[in-house]
Amino acid sequence: MEYRELRALVDVSFDIHRGEFFGIAGQNGSGKSTLLKILASIYRPDAGRVRMAGRLAPFIELGVGFNQELTARENVVINGVLMGLTKREARRRLDAVLDFAELHDFAELKLKNYSSGMLVRLAFAVMVQADADIMLVDEVLAVGDMGFAQKCMDVFYEKRDAGKTIVLVSHDMGAVQALCHRAMLIHDAEIAYLGQPEEVAMRYYRLNFAEERSDGAGRGPALPDINARVVEARLEDDSGQPVENVAQGAPLFLDLVIEARRDLVDPMFVIQVMNAESVVVFSIRRTLGDGRGELRAGDRVRLAGRIENSLVPGKYFLDCWVRRSREQGDLAVQGLRLREFVVYGTAPRDGVVSVSADLEAVQVEGRGT
Amino acid sequence: MSTEVHDVALKEVAGPSALGGGWRRALELLSLIAVADFKKAYFGTALGYLWSICRPLMLFGVLLAVFTQVFRIGSDVPNYPVLLLFNIVLFGFFQEATTTAVTSIVSQESVVRKTQFPRLVIPLAVVLTTGFNLGLNLVVVFVFILAWGIDPTATWLLFPVVLVLLFVLTTAVSMIVSSLYPRFRDTAILWSVAATVLFYGSPVLYPIERVPSTFQDVLLINPFTPLLELARKWVIDPTAPSPAETAGGFAGLLPAIAIYIGVCLFAVWSFRREAPRIAEQL
After folding, report:
1. By C-alpha distance, which of A123, A124, A133, A135 is closest to A40?
2. Which CATH number is A173's domain given?
């Protein structure tokens, strides 16, 4: 019989400190969920060890163990015990959980009659009230509506400030950067990078773009609209007609409208052009006015104008990062995938850009003559 | 705020196991889940408990008709109908608990794969829930026994010993089949056949003394034989032979006792061996 051995994690060694918000990023199948399951004592590693101080909420998903046939009250107690509380503690915190979830009136209702929004609220409330020292969170922000995602974020900030340790596994680089002190990128079962969340996000996006090219498909990775959203992103030619392809040397006209999904203080917009090798060819930074400015949720910003085109022929990706300004630590709030375009032309493809050069080749007399 | 987590020592994480998360947590989860399952079974349907007693009663009715009217095996056994009902309820507990236990861990897939759940709690909860059911059924059976005209005797007080032994055996077998099933899916089919063989191979339908002596030797290695004999002697018919008498002395019981202990030890070994890997098998 033939079989292939798949090693989900190899030589993964790292420390997470008390009170740290630690992010783990990676593509599907990279091994990040396996790692989380090892931390949660769901899987046993074939080699190596894990050490931990304090009480861990051994959950990697919200609402695990909820029983549809039981009432909210019963479920909260069972879930509390699963979270590591004793039965008595779980009963004592019942009211606090129902308060937090704003579901006091529905305590005796069976979960099968709950809406999905109510379920998520209840599950999240149990997790928050279980008050473990260490929490593991797998894509929690993917659930619920915008308002709830906001509430999750607020709770995470609170927990972080209270000295709790949180390990967040996410595809959402916006959340990783906004929340995490440090982050780790896992690729092909190994640690590809450990350190600044911003760098993790960059590398993660590059991996995704590289992957996508090898697929041949033109779809972008799903980037959730947590903090900002693209309303419109157009490339135009000099007559104002939208275009997909641009002739080599012809200027690019960009018309971009971004809407803030939450209040953003002193935002900075970074437009980035990346080539097919995932190399950032150039980037342009713009702030509102003199760099001071506040966007309320729902406000829109237009970035439009002419960009000189010295790109060599090939396929390009246009991205935008919405960041907080320098003084605030230059946190990237969110990366937005705008569009891809092709520069066509006949010029040789050597190098990354073609620049106009005032350079001549002149034969001069040599010794040969 | 951060003082809460101040003095905690760094501890090795043991990984998933049968009792992962500690005894106390496992016991609390066990009681919560068994009670919840029981409620679910009886408050979910209109007739609730009535349905669960219906099943053994109907089986009893059919078998009673067959074995007193057709095969006539039971017509000259003292108190055959009550004995039959009693045996069906006791063996039914074992059969129902173990067959439900086979797939129990797989059907609880989400908790096993997404949280640190003490694996042992799952089959134990099945045994406990079925045990509540047995308790209710026994009430009906004892009413039946009294109505039949059997007078209570002092040996009734010994009956809990049989119950405990039956519980332990049922738990052990449940642990074995539930731990093997995630890896060997054939377990479910094999076990349903084995349970049927065991039903006919135990003195449920017939009293042991009616079995030809060549087959008695086979029946005697079955741990259910002495259990059901004890139950019969202590509760229904004090004149029935004791297990040692049918076995021709205490030594004759040793194979059954050895198998009983062997099954229990194998259960612990098998479950401990499989528990850490179960999440990956699902």
Report:
1. A135
2. 3.40.50.300
